[in-house]
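TL;DR need structure tokens for one chain.
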Amino acid sequence: MKIVSYNINGIRSGINKGLFHWIEACQPDILCFQEIKAFPEQINTNILESFGYSHYWFPSKRKGYSGVGILCKKKPNHVEYGIGLNSIDQEGRVIRIDLKKISVINLYLPSGRNMKKRLNFKFYFMNQFFDYIKKIKKKFNNLIICGDYNICHQKIDIYDPIKNMEISGFLPEERKWMTHFLNLGFIDSFRNSVKEANHYSWWSYSYNARKNNKGWRIDYAMVSTSLKKQIKNAYLLPEIKYSDHCPTVLELEEEIIE
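>> reply
TL;DR here they are.
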């Protein structure tokens, strides 16, 4: 079973660059998109259906902003849109699908780069999402939370930890939150498989950052500890360039999809 998460930074732009061809070639069982920046009617979903996917979208109410979506080869038992708080859900940042043995949450945690305007909202979101997951875990033990967390957890996850120490995405408070989040009973699947440095999932469009691999690893597939033995592999696809992010991939033992 292959689960892919990808901040596409505008799905219509990605489609124009050949995104559908990549989906057809990659054939993930589940594909989580963040930052779709579109309404469902603006996406040619007929093509996705021809690939064998059911699809579920939770756009932001604000046009051309945020939004998440999930493609799934196996039709879910249930789809949950948002976490039940309008202040968060109006931005289209969380969607969950429940299969027989696992539940997959697609998360687009806000950026706090505009620290004067958005950092407080980011921390508000983090706290509310933390409480939401604590409740959800009581009901769904086998959780996978994919998406753009907009946080580098450790120094190994960012190209220049000293220079970026006071930038949102690598603030001590954000990194501490990530540690507490993992302590709820999750595994960073990529770090479970890859121990080396210099692996990133996002690069600024400025200063040839991607060419020089000056990046941040802010995209994750967090897996419940109950599924640890099912993790087959986890990796990034930096060669895929439909966005300023790259896809993250989680492979699980096949029987988990049933």
